[in-house]
Amino acid sequence: MKLKPLFDKVVVKQPEETEQTVGGIFLPTSAKEKQEIAEVIAVGEGGTVDGKEVKMVVKVGDRVLYSKYAGSTFKIDGEEVTVIKQSDILALIEEA
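The structure corresponding to this sequence follows.
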């Protein structure tokens, strides 16, 4: 299924990572605290939101850091995604 967010909304997906503890136990992402770093998988078109013109800055494939309690999380085709406002994105993550 393809998601098409509206206006200033952005769909992000958490990376699937596992982490090994000191004792050698592997923790899946679901067992850890929610991380606020994600990959952008869909972007709205922007436009007028609450009487202000919004230009979309992020694009599909960007890695972003967003506010801890931002957005709503949904399960689509077995994958967990979060829909947030562009204004909830705090920074773009660039590889050095």
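The CA atoms of residues 46 and 52 lie 10 Å apart.
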